[in-house]
Structures are given as C-alpha cells and as structure tokens.
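Run log, item B.
One chain of 197 residues. Sequence copied directly from the ordering sheet:
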Amino acid sequence: MGVDISLGNGGGDLLSAAIGFGGAVIGGAFTLAGVMMQQRGEEKRRKVQDAEALRAFLKALGTEMDTVWATYMVNVGSVIEAVPADEYWDQVWESTTEYFAVYRSGAGHLGHIETDELRMSIVAAYTTAMGLLESFRTYSDLVRSAWALELDAERQRSIAPDQWHVVEQAWPKLKAHHDLTKRLVAEMQEEISRNLY
C-alpha cells in the first residue's frame, strides 16, 4: 500500500502561493540588502565630504591667520617689538578692517574638530588676536588723550604728564598681549599643520 502525496486540484494553488511567498521574501531580502549597502555608501561619501570640508576650513583658518598676522607685523607689530624695554610707544594705531571673516563665518565647524589641542589652539589664538586689536583701540584712545591734553590750553598742560603716565602704565600690558598673541598664533599654525599633513 502506497502513500498518495498528490495535492489534488487545490494543492497546485497552495504550492504556487508558497513559491510566490518564498520568492517575495527572498526578493525583499535582496532589496533590503541593496538599500542598506546604498545607505552605507552614502554615509561613507558624506563622511568623506565632511572630512574634506573640515580640512578646507582648517586650511582657510591657517591662511587667514597667516595673512592677518603678516599684515599686522608689517603695519605695527615689528614697530612694537623694536621699542626698547625702558620706553613706551607713544603712537596711535587702530585696525580699520574687520578681520577674521573665515573664523566668524565658520565658527560652527569648530565643534567638529575632534582634536582637543587643535580646537583649543584655534580658539585661543583667534580670541587673543581679537583682544589684541581691541587693546590697541583702548591704548590708542589713551595716547590720543595725552596728545590732546598736551596740545590743549595752558590749564591742560599740567594734566598731560599724568595722562602720559597712564599710557606708560598701559604699555607693558599691550606689549605682553602682543607677545602672547604671537606665541598662540604660532602654536595654532603648528597644530593645524600637524593635523593636516
């Protein structure tokens, strides 16, 4: 006695449905795998693009600071460094240009810099450089005031020496700010170079 394994009339439909379902599952699995591979590829491309954008930002920061610092040194920095230790600078200098456009416009990129030392050196150099420009504005106001008092009427001449004393007292702070900025700019440039190349 044999076993009948025929599916009868409705069995073919059941088998077709099972094969169709199996094909759909396999097709879905391949589609899902394809989508996942595409997403991984897009993620890798995005990471490469982000890394390239950050690298370009760092290069731009380095170029900006090189340019600003070189201009500063030509205009006033070398003069500051040439003032003898026992004297003070009695001139006015103020920046009339709004510097640091790259830093200001790209400040949001700073958080994407993974290296703490690099991020901190950039922020320290730029903050100190901006502060140096502001210190020059304040110092120049003091010098202008002293010159104005000296050139003013006779009653003001007695006050002028006191104002020059204020300028003399402010000079070491300005010189120290210049020296600190110079050091921090050099450190920032070294960090950028170390992280780019």
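Observations after the first pass:
- The first helix runs from residue 8 to 82.
- The helical segments are 8-82, 101-105, 116-151, 154-157, 160-196.
Flagged for discussion on Thursday.
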